[in-house]
Design brief:
single chain, 275 residues, MetI-like fold, 71% helix, globular
């Protein structure tokens, strides 16, 4: 076997440039959130933080009910994330390693549903929400996102690549039930891919703006993205106020990324290899 070649200095230079370009918008948003709105009109570029961050934070919470919005978004995103990971993992394992009539046809139906634009279902889903009496309640945002075709497809591919069929058959021969085989054989093998799905699902639910704006009351049950749009409304845009709210609103996503970070690279690499 050939010895591994160490990456050259240009590789680290390119990676540093990519990381810097990716993090700069987040850093610039934080810098603006530490200034007053008049600093936006300065001719010199804003590169260093100012001293108005705490003042801007107080203004954000005085302008909108940001605590309520954060709580609602945490409930919605957390529930949708957990439900997607659990249901998609179970369905993906069933499609990958269980044998039942119509398995391939049903999987093609699930995968094909991912090709349907979400905008086509807005009106029918809105009518269903109204019939159920969920308008203005968090159920209207949570229930439609409990499971996704992408999640089922992702976890099915993960089970196909990471869970060996011979290992499943051996567990079955030894007398393990389907549930025990799933929990002790499949789940440990696909944990990194499940972490990636959790991150993608949480981020999608957290950043969703259109559907919560349609079915929730902005005054009674807002989400983070809805109140951020309220901060941007008015006769003029207070960029320091708006970006302060955005800086606060991105904190849960950063925390989740730090928690799941050790699984993300492994999960994405496995998804590319097995996809």
């Amino acid at each position: 076997m050939r010895p591994r070649r160490r990456p050259g200095g240009w590789v680290y230079l390119v990676l540093t440039a990519v990381v810097g370009a990716s993090l700069f918008p987040l850093y610039w948003s934080f810098v603006v959130s530490t200034r007053d709105n008049s600093a936006i009109g300065e001719t010199s570029p804003l590169m260093l933080p100012g001293g108005h961050f705490l003042e801007n934070v107080r203004r954000v919470f005085d302008t909108v009910d940001f605590w309520l919005a954060m709580g609602n978004s945490m409930i919605v995103s957390g529930t949708v994330m957990v439900s997607n990971v659990v249901l998609s993992t179970v369905a993906g394992y069933a499609f990958a390693r269980l044998r039942f009539p119509g398995r391939n046809s049903l999987f093609l139906l699930v995968a094909g549903s991912a090709m349907v634009p979400a905008q086509l279902g807005v009106i029918p889903l809105y009518l269903v929400v109204g019939d159920l009496g969920w308008y203005g309640r968090l159920e209207a945002v949570i229930v439609p996102g409990l499971v996704s075709a992408f999640g089922v497809f992702w976890m099915r591919q993960a089970c196909e690549g990471a869970v060996a069929a011979d290992l499943v058959d051996a567990a079955t021969v030894d007398g393990a039930s389907v549930l025990r085989t799933f929990w002790h054989v499949a789940v440990p093998a696909i944990r990194p891919q499940a972490a990636v799905l959790a991150m993608i699902t949480f981020l999608g639910a957290w950043n969703d703006y259109f559907w919560p704006l349609v079915v929730l009351d902005p005054a009674e049950s807002p989400t983070v993205q809805v109140v951020l749009s309220q901060l941007a409304s008015g006769y003029f845009t207070d960029y320091s106020l708006m970006l302060t709210g955005a800086s606060i609103g991105v904190l849960p996503v950063i925390v989740l990324f730090l928690v799941l970070g050790r699984y993300l690279v492994r999960g994405i690499a496995s998804g590319v290899r097995y996809g």
